[in-house]
Amino acid sequence: MRKLTSTLLAAVALAAFSAVPASAQDLVVATAGPITGQYAAFGEQMKRGAEMAVADINAKGGVLGKKLKLEVGDDACDPKQAVAVANQMAGKKIVFMAGHFCSSSSIPASAIYNESGILQMTPASTNPALTEEAANKKWNNVFRTCGRDDAQGLVAGKFLASQYKGKKVAIIHDKSAYGKGLADETKKAMNAAGLNEVMYEAITQGDKDFTALVSKMKAAGVDAMYLGGYHTEAGLLVRQSREQGLNALLVSGDALVTDEFWKITGPAGQGTLMTFAPDPRKLPTAADVVKKFKAANYDPEGYTLYTYAAFQAWAAAVAKAGSTDAAKVSAALKGMTADTVLGKLAWDAKGDVKDAAYVWYVFKDGKYSEM
User: Fold this and answer.
1) CA distances from 349 to 123, 139, 317, 331, 335 (A)
2) Cα separation of 230 and 41, whole Å?
3) pLDDT greater than 90 at residue 93
4) pTM of the entire predicted model
5) How many angstroms separate the CA atoms of 83 and 142, rounded?
6) In which band, very low, low, confident or very high, does the pLDDT at 23 lie, cut at 50, 70 and 90?
7) pLDDT above 60 (res 6)
8) Residues 106-119, buried b or exposed e (16+ Cβ, 10 A)?
9) How many C-beta atoms lie closer than 10 Å to residue 38's C-beta?
10) Arithmetic mean of pLDDT, 279-293
């Protein structure tokens, strides 16, 4: 066999190089949330949902003929860290962000995504200010796959006014954008329905000792306590309440949609109520994906499928727009109905999901289920 000339060697090398898909041709997408810290259970939900969605989209040929590459950011539900993550993602030239989890992270991060021309669709941030402020500023890049706290708070407030008429209810929040926002919406709806709270108190995220607050509620004869906050503080609050002889019902929101809550409370969590959307794991549109998750020994609870749906919706809008340009994808989303694991999703002019619904769940014997 004759030796290859240097020219032929170069040609062969070039052909071999060209046959390998260049990473520069990938579309970089991302999710971001509390991958570490006390709310890491929710970060895990988002990460799992994103990974499965990207794998499934790539298996079907990708988006616009290109494969998706996933980046995962950890904001620990800290606003400053969220801004840092957003800047990092902008530097990585992502074209889509399925995040963040906490409203206090999504709101400041949204400014970075807007400046960078990145479409953001949060699976979990429910504070109305996220889309309201974006709309007021004429931004077109902010969306949700979840509902809003004014809808969630309306359900909770009406329930408390109806079920605890003539009784004593305490409203508590954790000072976060999500927690205070949800507590205030619940308070507003409850007051409008004819029931005023006997206490309106604030705790701090990360607090572990609620002895003084429980004593105050016990002295006031509180029958029910509504907490706008997350499962860690909620779990400790209800456990310490029972230990001090306060049997007031704990009512809260969608940040309790994790079995981690019961790991904190044990039997003290029995009967705890929370609002969340109808269980997405039971939807016919999610059946195949849920089966895949369970085959991998993972229960896609909480916001796992909401994250998966965000990638589905974005991919469908990109296909319709024929572009990943945020403005074009935004226009496509607002003019379409996307088929997702959550069913058919459509968005209003602000980027909020149309007709978002909330129902009641109860914790019983270590698990939560729809009532």
Assistant:
1) 18, 11, 15, 9, 9
2) 11
3) yes
4) 0.90
5) 15
6) low
7) no
8) bbbbbbbbbebebb
9) 15
10) 97
Distances (CA, A) of 174 to 86, 117, 355, 366: 24, 32, 28, 24
Predicted confidence (pLDDT) at residue 1 exceeds the cutoff of 60: no
Q: At 278, list the tokens.
A: 């109808």
| DSSP at 267 | G
Per-residue confidence band for 265, with pLDDT thresholds at 50, 70 and 90: very high
How many DSSP H helices and E strands does the chain contain?
A: 13, 14
What is the DSSP track for 172-185?
A: EE-SSHHHHHHHHH
Answer yes or no: are the C-beta atoms of 285 and 339 closer than 8 Å: yes
DSSP letters spanning 183-223: HHHHHHHHHHTT---SEEEE--TT----HHHHHHHHHHT-S
Structure confidence at residue 25 (pLDDT): 84
Strand positions, DSSP E, the chain: 27-33, 68-74, 96-99, 119-122, 142-144, 169-173, 199-202, 224-228, 249-252, 273-276, 338-340, 343-345, 359-364, 367-370
Considering the chain, tell me which residue range(s) the CATH 3.40.50.2300 domain(s) occupy.
Answer: 23-147+282-345, 150-276
Residue with tokens 């060209």: 18
Res 15 pLDDT > 60: no
Q: The tokens of 208 are what? A: 């572990």
Segment 354-368, tens digit of pLDDT: 999 999 999 999 999
Read off the tokens for 31.
């999710």
Give the tokens for residue 326: 């945020």
| Strand 338-340 relative to strand 224-228, pairing | unpaired
**Burial class of 20 by CB neighbour count within 10 A (0 to 12, 13 to 18, 19+):** exposed
- Cα dist. 259→46, 78, 136, 295, 335 in Å? 15, 23, 38, 19, 37
Q: What is the CATH number of domain 23-147+282-345?
A: 3.40.50.2300
- What architecture is domain 150-276? 3-Layer(aba) Sandwich (3.40)
Q: What is the C-alpha to C-alpha distance for residues 98 and 309, in angstroms, rounded to an integer?
A: 9
